[in-house]
Every structure is written in C-alpha cells, then in structure tokens.
Amino acid sequence: xxxxxxxxxxxxxxxxxxxxxxxxxxxxxxxxxxxxxxxxxxxxxxxxxxxxxxxxxxxxxxxxxxxxxxxxxxxxxxxxxxxxxxxxxxxxxxxxxxxxxxxxxxxxxxxxxxxxxxxxxxxxxxxxxxxxxxxxxxxxxxxxxxxxxxxxxxxxxxxxxxxxxxxxxxxxxxxxxxxxxxxxxxxxxxxxxxxxxxxxxxxxxxxxxxxxxxxxxxxxxxxxxxxxxxxxx
Length: 233
Fold this sequence. Notes:
The structure is a single chain. This protein is of the alpha/beta class. The protein has a single domain (about 5-225), classed as Rossmann fold (3-Layer(aba) Sandwich). The chain is built from seven helices and seven strands. The chain has helices at about 5-20, 30-45, 60-65, 80-90, 125-135, 175-185, 210-215, and strands at about 50-55, 70-75, 95, 110-115, 135-145, 190-200, 220-230. The protein has a seven-stranded mixed β-sheet with strand order 3-2-1-4-5-7-6, with helices on both faces. Helix 3 (about 60-65) links the parallel strand 1 and strand 2. The longest helix has 18 residues, at about 5-20. Residues about 1-10 have low confidence and may be disordered.
C-alpha cells in the first residue's frame, strides 16, 4: 500500500468516527459493553499511576481510569470524538494523535497504556506496538482489545437498529492472533494474560432472542495484557 493509498484509508476511518461521535455514547454497542469489565480488570489502574488511553474516543476508559485515581491522558485521531470527550471530561488532558505515527509524548513516561478496539483499523501493527513500548516505562503494561479473529458473525442480529455500523464505513483489517503475537514480540513485550471474551448475558438485551440463543458463547472480543521487558529502555 502506497502512502497515498494509506492516507485515503485512514481518512475514511477518521470520517466514520467523526460521523459516529455525536451518537457514540447512546448507540447500542455490544463490543464496548461486552469487553468493558474485562478490559478494566486487566488494566487494574491504581492511584498515582500515569496511564495513556490510546484511541480514547469519547472517553469511556479515560473517565474510569481517572475515577480510580490515576493520571490519564487520552489520545484520538477524531476531532469530533475528542470534542465529545472534552465536554464530558473538561479537566483531563486530551490530545489529537494518530496511532500510525509517533504520538509526540515523552519516552518511558507511562505506567500503562490501554487501547480499545482501534488496532483492527490499522493495516500494520508494528508502528503502534513500537510506539506503546517507547512510551512505557520498563515493566509497564499494555492492555488492548480487538474483535476476536475467530468471531463468526453469522446469525448475529441486533434487537434494534444501532443507527451507525462502523464496519460499513471504516476499513477493518482481520489480523490473526499470530500477527498480534508477532507484533507484540517484535516490540519487546511479553504476553501476560489473554482473554477470549464470549457473547454473554451482558449483551443479551442488545440481540434478538433467536440470535442470542445461537451465538451465545462465541468468542467476540480478544483482550490481552502484555508487559514491556524490564531490561528494555
């Protein structure tokens, strides 16, 4: 893919999230609902920590991290998503940033990074993982979530129109688990915990009764906690 072609893809994805921003927090979203508790448990933010919410969107994780007493910075590439986050979180630092490029933040300045449902929009995983490693202190942790590579969407039916389907407007890359593991190892991370989050009671009300009966138990989200090597700089 040439730089020009990549810019076009990136622009489509940014435009999709700009369009979604106004209704993002009120739209039925089984992805975020299904993963939230598990991602927060993997991240386990602590008072006094400094945490980066990479691809923060409207600030769902940003707000929760701040409530746990950590200092959090949110970064997103959508101006409109950030505008919603700023209305919600006026006292938190929120910055425009693109995961395909350096984020302009100091090296080794974070105890943890969380990245929810963003890596699937990137054609290459090497740059974001390398940047996360650069930003983390030695032994710092990264928690990320993506749609599970083995997810089967056949018979997955929402009980009401979600209003906006990001997959219809943005580019999504179906990276394999092996590709994620290669990028993780290449950036100097060690895998600490892997969770296959299945369709469960958390999202029953968002699906038709017929659909839930069929798809319950299917792995929908892949979430991982990886740790920067202690001997890394």
